[in-house]
Specification:
By secondary structure, this protein is α+β, with helices and mostly antiparallel strands. It folds into 2 domains: about 130 residues, no CATH class; about 140 residues, no CATH class. It is about 40% helix and about 10% strand. Strands 1-4-3 form a 3-stranded antiparallel sheet. β7 and β8 form a beta hairpin. It is globular.
């Protein structure tokens, strides 16, 4: 259980991307929060209650959907032991990753090599195995639950608009962000089947809004060429899912995005790091919105 094999670091990008490609090929979008506890949706949580971020959210949501887990908490074998729990015999763990950078002066061989030392930090990726709380016996609780959210969905939508200061106009039957005008266009709330659908769509368009040159200045053209627009749509889908999880709102796939599935698969298969880029940019956008000082 503890000694689960770990793929070489150079292969982790391919391993993680392959996991998400497999889910997409099965018709599952792994960025849709798969469960609710007490009526609340949330990100996957660490043993400490701290939310997972970025690509790990997708990995753990994908596993939760595949195996039917409802508990949001995930922990390593040793963390479970420290909490008085025991991973059940035969349970399969789930891979999560940690990305970081090593500065040139931190390299062990820097003083011994005759080669010039680059001043650029070197990125690394490490993997860990975690288990869902439902795979563990003896825990004091079935896993940390997300706090109840008392705000109405309309209040949460208003909060997003007020917090960003974005110009949001209502009317028509399409939702989109117009970069030239720097305006988010939304249908009236009454046109949505559920209030959560309105908030999720608004969050999606606000993620697009963060990519403006005066904000996060997000562009993908040089790297992804003709698929750049599809990558931006993936960032917006992921960012919306992260925001809705932070607000503890359920998300639903948008019918008008079904056509992007083939593009996303094409991009992910061609570039094993594209998923990491999209997830990181989506996390950055969600952080920008949630941590932005509310505009008066």
């Amino acid at each position: 259980m503890q000694g689960s094999s770990q793929p070489p670091a150079r292969d982790l990008y391919a391993v993680v991307t392959g996991r998400i490609i497999h889910a997409l090929e099965q018709g599952v979008r792994p960025w849709l929060c798969p469960w609710a506890r007490g009526g609340s949706h949330t990100r996957p949580l660490r043993a400490t209650g701290e939310p997972y971020r970025g690509v790990n959210v997708l990995l753990l949501w994908a596993t939760a959907q595949e195996r039917g887990y409802r508990a949001p908490t995930w922990m390593t074998y040793r963390q479970a032991e420290a909490l008085g729990g025991q991973v059940r015999k035969g349970e399969r763990g789930t891979l999560v990753v940690y990305a970081g950078q090593v500065k040139p002066e931190e390299r062990d061989d820097a003083a011994e090599t005759a080669e010039p030392v680059s001043h650029r930090a070197r990125s690394f990726l490490r993997s860990f195995t975690v288990f869902n709380a439902e795979q563990i016996d003896g825990l004091a609780t079935a896993g940390t639950l997300a706090p109840d959210v008392t705000a109405e969905l309309g209040d949460q939508a208003h909060m997003l608009i007020e917090r960003t200061g974005a110009t949001v106009r209502h009317g028509g039957d399409r939702a989109y962000y117009a970069p030239a005008l720097d305006v988010v266009q939304m249908p009236e709330r009454s046109r949505f089947r559920e209030a959560a659908g309105y908030v999720g769509t608004l969050a999606h368009e606000l993620v697009h809004w963060t990519g403006h040159g005066d904000r996060l200045a997000r562009t993908f053209g040089a790297r992804f060429g003709d698929e750049a627009y599809a990558v931006e749509e993936l960032v917006a889908e992921l960012g919306s899912a992260f925001l809705c999880a932070d607000l503890q709102i359920g998300t639903e796939p948008r019918d008008d995005h079904a056509g992007y599935l083939a593009h996303w698969l094409s991009v992910l298969k061609a570039d094993k790091r594209a998923l990491f880029t999209a997830a990181a940019q989506a996390q950055r956008a969600a952080d920008f919105i949630m941590n932005r000082e509310q505009v008066a």
